[in-house]
From TrEMBL:
It is a multi-pass membrane protein. Residues 354-368 have a biased composition (Basic and acidic residues). The chain crosses the membrane at residues 6-28, 35-53, 59-78, 109-135, 141-161, 190-210, 240-264, 276-301, 313-333. GO terms for molecular function: branched-chain amino acid transmembrane transporter activity. This is Urea ABC transporter permease subunit UrtC. It is found in: Cell membrane. The keyword Nucleotide-binding does not apply. It comes from Rhodococcus spongiicola. One of its GO terms (cellular component) is plasma membrane. It comes from the Bacteria. It holds the Pfam family BPD_transp_2. Residues 345-368 are annotated as: Disordered.
Length: 368
């Protein structure tokens, strides 16, 4: 890593910090700022997908699973905290459903520290176990993509059938966030700052991984897996780490999504959201660091804008945009700079002077 690249990275982080912490709160309304906070959660997921897919070649179509795990763990704690404020033993939706006893697996999430630890540990742990089972069997390519997508569908169906965690309606109507009133605009702005800070930390950590020895090994596994295995490395272990890191980011994003948006349901963690995460990464540029971030935010913003003006047109616009990018700009929007950059024309070497060509023949004649 050269000094110039480090300088550019620091300048980029400084500009992003000024935009997120200074410009955005000053020019956006409370509603738009809350929307941007939601988009930042999607961008955190996209950074992990960029690492696993762009660098590792793993087409992760099931990131909604890990996003949902983090989201539901946070939602369970928020519902428990609200019940404690009211002096109840069970959350409000359980009372409506006629449940009078709290399920045993809900009890630990009354503690904030336990909830935070679970959010940070459970999604990457699940990804680690799944990754070992999949990558050790050398499942890759389209087979891995289909398997991960089936996992997202199964997870959403499982949540629909569990009335103890809201069923198809999910969990909503949260009043507090670790003691802070969620109806207060100042606290909503605080959530935006938290999401912005987490995004910057995630991007910085991913950049460090990409520029490390592990990042080079991950790219080598993507391009020449058998050659890496021949050199004595186990490609499965390399993939498992990237898969777990992507799940770690998705779990954090899901946990932040819940207090920002105020609801989590099976519709937010199934196949469609998982594909939407991937579309943003593909459009932004999966092989770059900032491409997934910009793509996720841009696609989410376009979806919101078009849905407000043309409710039925967004699905077609999203599909068309995805086809155009994949078909004509495989590197995404971030790769347009490489396509527009003028290529240097290779100049042929200067011909050798006639005198230098004749010298060897003269030496041979003298030798004779």
């Amino acid at each position: 890593m050269t000094i110039i690249s480090r300088y550019r990275a620091w300048v980029g982080f400084a500009v992003a910090a000024v935009v997120l912490f200074g410009v955005a709160p000053a020019v956006l309304s409370d509603f738009r700022l809350n929307l941007l906070a939601k988009f930042l959660c999607f961008a955190i997921v996209a950074v992990g997908i960029g690492l696993a897919w762009g660098r590792g070649g793993m087409l992760t179509l099931g990131q909604g699973v890990f996003f949902g795990l983090g989201a539901y763990l946070m939602a369970m704690h928020l519902k428990m905290a609200d019940a404690q404020l009211r002096g109840d033993t069970v959350p409000d939706f359980m009372q409506i459903a006629g449940m009078r006893e709290l399920p045993g697996y809900w009890a630990p999430f009354a503690d904030p520290l336990t909830t935070i630890v679970a959010i940070l540990v459970v999604p990457p742990l699940v990804a680690f176990v799944l990754g070992l089972g999949v990558f050790k069997r050398r499942v890759k390519g389209a087979y891995f993509a289909i398997l991960s997508q089936a996992l997202a569908a199964a997870f959403a169906i499982l949540l629909i059938g569990q009335q103890s965690i809201g069923g198809s309606n999910g969990l909503n109507r949260f009043r507090t966030f670790f003691g802070f009133d969620l109806s207060d605009p100042a606290n909503k702005q605080m959530l935006f700052f938290i999401a912005a800070g987490v995004l910057l930390l995630v991007v910085a950590a991913t950049r460090q991984l990409m520029n490390s020895r592990y990042g080079e090994l991950l790219v080598a596994v993507r391009d020449q897996e058998e050659r890496v295995r021949f050199l004595g490395y186990d490609p499965a272990n390399v993939k498992v780490v990237a898969y777990a890191v992507a799940a770690f980011f998705a779990g954090i994003a899901g946990a932040l999504f819940v207090p920002i948006v105020g609801i989590i349901s099976p519709a937010d963690v199934g196949i469609v959201p998982s594909i939407a995460f991937l579309v943003g990464v593909a459009i932004g540029g999966r092989t770059t660091l900032l491409g997934p971030v910009l793509g996720a935010i841009g696609v989410a913003w376009a979806q919101t804008t078009l849905s407000e003006n043309f409710p039925s047109a967004w699905t077609y616009a999203q599909g068309l945009l995805f086809i155009v990018v994949i078909g004509f700009f495989p590197l995404g929007i971030a790769g347009l700079g490489k396509l527009l950059r003028p290529r240097a024309v290779a100049t042929p070497p200067d011909p050798e002077p006639e005198s230098s060509r004749e010298e060897p023949s003269r030496e041979k004649e003298l030798a004779r």
